[in-house]
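Reopening this ticket.

The earlier resolution said the output was attached, but the attachment link was broken on my side. Pasting everything inline this time so it's all in one place.
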Amino acid sequence: MTALAHEFRATYAFIERNANLVKRYFSWELVWLVYSTADSLAVSYIGLGVERMSGVETFDGRYLVLYLVIGTLVWRYLSIIFYWITDVIGMERWEGTIEYTLMAPIRRITHMAGQTLFAVFYSLIFTGIILAVVAVLFEIDLSQANLIGGVAMLMAGSLSFIGVGIMGSTLPLLFPERGSQMTHVIIALLLLVSGVYYPVEVLPEILQKIAVFSPATYVLSGARSALLEGAPTLQLWPYIWPTLIMGVIAIPAGLWVFGLAERYAKRAGKLHRNG
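Inline output:
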């Protein structure tokens, strides 16, 4: 019990450290929030823009707005989790603590648990603020939406993105100079094939086959069913179970890959404070 309590305290220590970093760089967080909100609004206004440009009176621009809003917010939530986890090494280098953290007598799963719990909590708050602004400006009515089902889809998707993020965090560890930039390739490919702004069915056949392996594909489809169509939570199970399986596989695989990369980085002397 003493050892377990120690691990919980260590996990909380990483959560508290990240919270203190957000406080220290609050001005940057505010700038990023404004940028993300403006970006989400710009994408969502495409729906009304298409309605105006189509010249068709029966065209339902409001539905397209909701379609884009859900896609934008779900993707924002998942991508923030991904970036917070993949930045675990870059953050240590920025603070000059990479040697101390990776050489400390702490389990890596404890380290990652603190990082991921904070990432989920931070992403929920960040996305919630954007949702509030979008809902006010577009006068979105969510009275018929299944909000519980939508949240369930986000939580299920979080697990798989945590695993993908842990795998991606090995790139800054192995490539100190440009590893952080390399993680953008992963998120860009997921953005392309997951149907964030359009149905997956419009993609070429080869990309549709790849989309099956993206957890975001299921999260987006399930969230839209819950929020746009008001589908009951039990009917979302065909979207939930694939993301859960991906998470169960991706998280242990990510920790294993990170362990291999960490041991190699220590042997090769890649724990530089500056990339």
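Reporter confirms the inline version is readable. The first helix runs from residue 2 to 24. The radius of gyration is 20 Å.
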